[in-house]
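thread: overnight batch results

M.L. [08:02]
morning all. the overnight job finished for the chain we discussed friday. pasting input first so we're all looking at the same thing
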Amino acid sequence: MHYLTDETLDRLLTYETLVPALKRMHLKRPSDQADMLLEQPAGGGGMDRLLNRAAWQQGEALGVKLATIFPNNPTNGSGRPSVQGVYILFGGELGEPQAVMDALVLTWRKTAADSALGASFLAREDAESLLMVGAGAMAPELIHAHLSQRPSLQRFMIWNRNQEKAETLAAELSKELAGKSVSAAPDLEAAVREADIVSCATMTEQPLIQGAWLKPGAHLDLVGAYTPSMREADDEALRRGRLYVDSRQTTIGHIGELMIPMAAGVIGEADIQGDLFQLSEGSVAGRGSAEEITLFKNGGGGHLDLMTARHGVERAREEGLL
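M.L. [08:03]
and the structure it wrote out:
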């Protein structure tokens, strides 16, 4: 049994290798997967959650992630991140434990790589500007992931309810993204209207992105909503955008971004054009024109944790660590 730490995974799981690996692994659908979500009121308000995500790719691998989501951690003086956990990977032929790994970096990388893989099919190839809505831990990951698939990106804007936090992140990323323009956006509407790609990673339950703001050719990447009560985009965004998801199985009937407008009759299942399995195998088309608006709902199911863990082990073996 081997243990891969966050520090090791930070080095092994690069977007340049992970995104193509996810595309390859999407050619084989998971045989089975299931989630369990427990929650209790948090001491500082909101909800603390325990998330168990298990997935099985028959003959390849199976695994489970055990993660806690305590959203008040970054501000309660504990020094702990909001998401913490472990992942256990088993072999798909014999069921033997192969590796245990920290789940923080794994979760960041699989989430951002999921969105980047979606954008590789759906965002304009000449996209130049990206707006990051939210300045939490996922924000820099999503920016780097999207840049790995769209090197044409030259301008990055960051909007956050706390403007100071957006400015701090912009200053940090300016040092990492040499030659790129990185700035805090004071006005959300104005920034959305300018952006070729809008990536949204927040904990909001009330939509922040209005569809009327999206310009022709824009790509909207929705990451944050993962419970039945959460939404990041309004009904008009779903009406205007050509809608895709990462997995039909883990988004339809599970996530408020789709459940709420479906219950209201705004959209139906037929409006979902495809998922990453179909896009990767080529059975559905991605972006059809330079002017159409595309929308991708990142649901982040357990199959993505499994694929990312598999790639982490592959990379560790390449480097002789396992």
